[in-house]
Amino acid sequence: MRIPRSAWLLLLLAVLVVVPLLKGGEFGGSDGEASVAIEQANPGFTPWLDPLWEPPSGEIESLLFALQAALGALVIGYVVGRRHGQSRARADRTGSGRPAQSAG
Amino acid sequence: MHIMEGYLPASHCAAWYAASAPFVVAGALRIRKIVRERPEARMILAASGAFAFVLSALKIPSVTGSCSHPTGTGLGAVIFGPSVMAVLGVLVLLFQALLLAHGGLTTLGANTFSMAVVGPWVAYAIWRLGRGLGLSVALSIFLAAALGDLATYVFTSVQLALAYPDPTSGIVGAVAKFGGIFAVTQIPLAIAEGILTVVVIDALAGKTADADKVGVLAGEIR
């Protein structure tokens, strides 16, 4: 049986994410590391403006990040499903022997 | 690639705002034109924005032992051209600046330029180049998304180096320093984004033949 392209690509993707975890490390954010590098190179540096609002805890921050990913995934899933439904409806119409309708 | 709030001098903030603004305006006009001429492309436009929204929320471990996130701007850039991503990218960056204290309002112009302008334009250029050289559609999409992602992080390193040149080695040395933090970490993530972009375009386009996928999604081929 032929393995679909998406299947082995996703497998490859999983390997890419898991290998660094096995290798180990601190896994801090690179954005934060850049800020630290600036502070180290410029002693006494303080940002001239603080964020208007910050998530009060790591939990709230991860809640908002999860919400961001969930909202995006919802939209992509909806569009993928809708397009598949449309193409199936089109296939049914043309496959039933009736003359193809002008729609689509 | 997010430069944090207050980390760029005010003059740099203003300059990056000025540099990004025309791209965002052009992107808004382009989106209006696409929606008017090909209403059926609206869904894919929404999915392109959503893809950037999801990917920029995912902090992924890298072989350097630190975490970073992909940008997700290559997908929309390949399908609709680079300018639409300027608008969709700003929306993602605004969400993160206001609700997550990730990036900032002062650095929004700079972050927009790296993530929503440089990344998409590089992705689009690589996509056209790949197709021009006769590479397959899937390989061209992969390279476009991966190199667009990487370009965003390289450009962030340049932006920080311009603001904070190294006392001894100058701007070039500082690019290498920040590039060591951003760009090297980003290499496996860029590969991951390239792979995921191919998978999502396949999922969106369904059973369409590879050669027609991008055209169908853009609403140019029925």
Q: How would you describe this structure in keywords?
A:
heterodimer; A: 104 residues; mainly alpha; elongated; B: 222 residues; two-stranded antiparallel sheet; 2 strands
Please describe what this structure looks like.
Chain A has 104 residues and is mainly alpha-helical. Chain A has a domain at 57-96. Chain A has helices at residues 5-23, 30-41, 58-95, and one strand at residues 28-29. The longest helix of chain A is centred in the last third of the chain and has 38 residues, at 58-95. Chain A is elongated and about 75 Å long. Chain B is an all-alpha fold. Chain B has a single domain, classed as Arp2/3 complex 21 kDa subunit ARPC3 (Orthogonal Bundle). Chain B contains 8 helices and 2 strands; from the N terminus they run ααββαααααα. Chain B has helices spanning 10-37, 42-55, 74-80, 83-99, 108-132, 137-163, 170-205, 213-217, and strands at 60-61, 66-68. In chain B, strands 1-2 form a two-stranded antiparallel sheet. In chain B, a hairpin with a 4-residue loop joins strand 1 (60-61) and strand 2. The relative contact order of chain B is 0.16. At the A-B interface, helix 1, strand 1, helix 2 and helix 3 of A face helix 2, strand 1, strand 2, helix 4 and helix 6 of B. Strand 1 (28-29) of chain A pairs parallel with strand 2 of chain B, so a sheet runs across the interface.
From the helix content, strand content and strand pairing of chain B, which structural class follows? mainly alpha
Shape of chain B: globular
Total count of strands of chain B: 2
Average pLDDT number of chain B: 96
Overall body shape of chain A: elongated
Please give the alpha-carbon distance between the first and last residues of chain B.
38 Å
Biggest interface, chains and residues, is:
A-B, 57 and 70 residues
Q: Which fold name is given in CATH as the topology of chain B?
A: Arp2/3 complex 21 kDa subunit ARPC3
Task: Summarize the helix and strand pattern of chain B as letters.
Answer: HHEEHHHHHH
Strand order of the largest sheet of chain B: 1-2
If you compute it from the alpha carbons, what radius of gyration of chain A comes out, rounded to the nearest whole angstrom? 24 Å
